[in-house]
Structures are given as C-alpha cells and as structure tokens.
Amino acid sequence: MEKGGEAGEYHSKDFEWEFVKNLVENDPSLSHHLQEPHLVDSSSSSFSSSVSKPWQDFHSRHSSGKFFKERRYLLKEFPELVLCGENTKLLEVGCGNGSTVLPVLRGSKNITVYACDCSSEALVRTKENINRAIATVDNFHSFTCDFSTSAFPNWLACHHCRHNKHCHHSGESDDTSLNEHCIGGVDFVTLIFTLSAVPKERMPRAIKECFAVLKPGGLLLFRDYGLYDMTMLRFEPEKCIGFREYVRSDGTLSYFFCLDTVKRLFTDAGFIEVELENCCVKAVNRRKNKNMYRIWVHGKFQKPFLK
Questions:
Q1: Which residues in 165-178 are b (16+ Cβ under 10 Å) and which e?
Q2: 196 by DSSP, 3-state: which?
Q3: Other CB atoms within 10 Å distance of the CB of residue 2
Q4: Taking the complete model, does pTM exceed 0.90, yes or no?
Q5: Which end of the chain has less Cβ packing within 10 Å, N or C?
C-alpha cells in the first residue's frame, strides 16, 4: 500500500464520507450492511457474557506483541498529550499491547499513565513492550478492568466525583468524607479503537464510567472505526449480529460509528463536544490496483466545569 507520510495519512481528508456512502448504497452486494439483521439469536447480547475471553485468547495468540504498530500519530492528533503540565494523569482504556501507551510515554515525561484492559494477557504484553522500548519507567501503572461491566477503582476518582456530574477539583483535603468536592480523577481518558469492541447495549454505561473518573474540564480523546470503513465492508452477512455491529471469526466484536451516534452517546453521558469529524484516508494497493477507503471517527469531549 502507498500513502505519503504518516502525518498525511492521518491528518488529511482524501475524500468526503458521502462519496463512500453513495458507493455502498448503490452496490447490491453490500446491501446487508444497510439493514438490521432479522435473526433473533444474532445479537450482541448473545456475546456479552464472553467479551473478555476472546480478547484474552487473541493476545495469547499474538504474544510477540507485533500485531499492532505503535500509534505515533496520536500525539499529532491529540497535541494536548504533549503540551500538558506536570503531574498530569491519563487513563488509557483498552490498552491492548501498548500501541497507544508507548508513544504517550515517549512523548511526555509529565504524564502518569494508568492503563487498563479486560484481558490480563494484554497487560502482560503491554509491560513487555514498554520494558523493551524504554529503559526506566516509573510513570506507568496497569490494572485489569472491563469498563463495560465494572466500575473503575475508587482511587482513580473520589466517591463524590463518581456520582456527581458537576463537582469541581479542589486540593483542600485528602479526606473525601470531609470535602464535598472532587479531589481526584484524571486529566485525560483515551478511548482508541476500544468502544467498538464493547457490545452496543453496554456502551452508554462504559462512557459514563469514563465521565466519572475525569476531573471537571478533563478531556476524553476518541478514535474508532467509522461507518463504511473498508473493514466493515469485508464482513459477510452471517457476521452481522446487529445494526452496524459484527463478530469476527475469533469471537471479538466490532461496531462502526456514524458521527450522530458518537455525539449522542457522549453528550447523553454529560460530555461537551469539542471536536468530532470523520477522518477519511485513501490508500492504494499497487499489486491489486485497488483503492482502499479507510474511515475513522476522531473526537474530543470535555467534562464540564462547575458553573
């Protein structure tokens, strides 16, 4: 495949999303992507109880840690991660093998990174990759958590903050029983190709968990698969388990987002939209003389300050 330069690959808009939408809607062979499946047993709820296990198996199979490339482009997409001040805290949700964590740790010494994944095997891979890439790391901490079914640990945010959308940050006391305002929380949450792997019915709860651990004014940084991305169009009809929702042969799930869905999910959880757009990239397979249209959703959402 050819595409000039990493910065160009992730920052340019090579085509309008409506161009691919028209291609899909006028191709009869792709009509199954436009309709909700009618099979009663073919829904994400059938897979909900075993979301973690397929990812555990996935990371066991790819134990070399080379399946994902380091996502260096993220520091260009989200420069806040480089420009942040001292004592900044970031929660990376769904860290996989560390492809997001590594460039953040390399790019900023001011950030303390907390990383979680539903797969304990993924955390092992992440630690191995970090230790290979960086000589000494004292600003990285990991823990196992499926944020679609479980709350984040209390030490990420004070109890009051978890249940109050409008609390503000205060450093007056370390005792949350004496201080009604938030004294904890993280400055950033990153959701990079993570939410699409969560069963659709669990997404609202998962996003509310992210909201709860952010400091007021904190940012959630989002990137995930967009509607009509090339990978969506490769799924056969029998892999469709819900509207725009698919299951891979290894049992992992994949949802493809339109902008309206993303906006609704995050604003319903209490977030303010800061940025939201499709990132549309055209790559060319020279060997097959074929154009490949990649579509990702890029977003930034802020937890409101107390008025």
A1: eebebeeeeeebee
A2: helix
A3: 7
A4: no
A5: C
Q: Please give the average per-residue pLDDT across 117-143, as a whole number.
A: 88
Q: Cα-atom radius of gyration of the chain, to the nearest Å?
A: 20
3-state secondary structure of 55: helix
Determine the residue type at 84. C
Nearest Cα to Cα of residue 225 among 211, 246, 241, 204: 246
Query: What is d(CA 190, CA 93) in angstroms, rounded to the nearest whole number?
Result: 6
Bridge partner residues of 304 (DSSP): none
> What pLDDT was estimated at residue 85?
87
In the predicted structure, residue 173 carries a pLDDT above the cut 80: no
Give the integer Cα–Cα distance in Å for 199 and 260.
18
121 touches 211 (CB < 8 A): no
Identify the residue with better confidence: 122 or 61: 122
Q: Where are the alpha helices (DSSP H) in the chain?
A: 6-11, 17-25, 52-61, 74-77, 80-83, 101-107, 120-133, 159-162, 203-213, 230-233, 259-268
Tokens of 65: 């840690």
- What is the model's pLDDT at position 179? 40
Residue 135, pLDDT score: 80
> For position 116, what pLDDT does the model report?
93
Rounded Cα distance, 270 and 272, in Å: 7
Spatial distance between the Cα atoms of 221 and 192, rounded to a whole number of angstroms: 8
Q: Tell me which residue of 11, 57, 78, 96 sits closest to 222, measured CA to CA.
A: 78
CA dist 127 and 113 (Å) reads: 12
Q: Which residue has the tokens 């260009």?
A: 76
